[in-house]
Amino acid sequence: GENVEQHPSTLSVQEGDSAVIKCTYSDSASNYFPWYKQELGKRPQLIIDIRSNVGEKKDQRIAVTLNKTAKHFSLHITETQPEDSAVYFCAARRNQGGKLIFGQGTELSVKP
Amino acid sequence: DVKVTQSSRYLVKRTGEKVFLECVQDMDHENMFWYRQDPGLGLRLIYFSYDVKMKEKGDIPEGYSVSREKKERFSLILESASTNQTSMYLCASGGQHNEQFFGPGTRLTVL
Questions:
Q1: Quick check: helix, strand or coil at residue A83?
Q2: How many secondary structure helices (H) and strands (E) does chain A include?
Q3: Which of A45, B33, B36, B106 could cross-link with B92 by S-S, CB 3.0 to 4.6 Å?
Q4: Given a cut of 80, is residue B1 above it in pLDDT?
Q5: With an 8 Å Cβ cutoff, are B99 and A42 in contact?
Q6: Omega into A34 within 30° of 0, i.e. cis?
Q7: How confident is the model over A27-67, as pLDDT tens digits?
Q8: How many CA atoms lie within 13 A of A109 on its CB side?
Q9: Which residues on A lie below 8 Å from B104 (Cβ)?
Q10: Given this model, what pLDDT does residue A52 score?
C-alpha cells in the first residue's frame, strides 16, 4: 500500500547549522508533497510544499527538493534557530484534495 | 482567518464508554479528516469525508465511526472506548486544491 518513510526520527543541531530531513514514498502517482511543522502542544502547520512538476522550492531559510525518479524528497533548513525546534512531518498525496500519507515525523532540536 | 475547532482539548473516559469528538471548520471546505497521533507513528488517518453524508475509511478505522450531517461538522465516534484508543486526535479540513488545516487536537485518555 501507500507508504512514506521519514528519516531521521530525531535530529540535534547547533544554532546556525543546517538541518536536512529526508522522506521516501512508495506511490509513484503521488504529485503533491507538503511539509508540516508541529511545535510542542500545538497543531501541525504547513511550512512549505512542492508539486511534482517542480524539482526545488525555496522560502527564505527553508527549501524542499524532489527527486521523482528516486521517489524521495527532502527538507533543508539553513541557519537554524532555537525556534526551529519542533516535530516536522512530510507527506505525499496522489489526488487534489485527497488524503495525505504522512511520514513518522522528525523531532528537531536546535541547541543555542 | 482559517479556523478549525475541536470540541475538547482534553478528555478522560472509561473503558466501554461511547465517545464523541466534534470538529467544526468555517472555510466551507469539502474535505474533512480525522487522524490520531502517537509517538513514533506520525499521523495516521482514521476516516475522511469528501462531502456531506459521505465517508471513507482511512488506514486505521477499526473501533471508530464518523458522521457528517453538515458540511462544516465532522464527528468521530468511539462506539466502545478501549485503553488502546488513548491518543491525540487531530481533525483537519481542506478544499480541493488547498492545504489541510488542522484543529488544535483532543488528547483522549481512556481509563
A1: helix
A2: 0, 11
A3: B33
A4: no
A5: no
A6: no
A7: 999 999 999 999 999 999 999 999 988 899 999 999 999 99
A8: 5
A9: 42-43
A10: 85
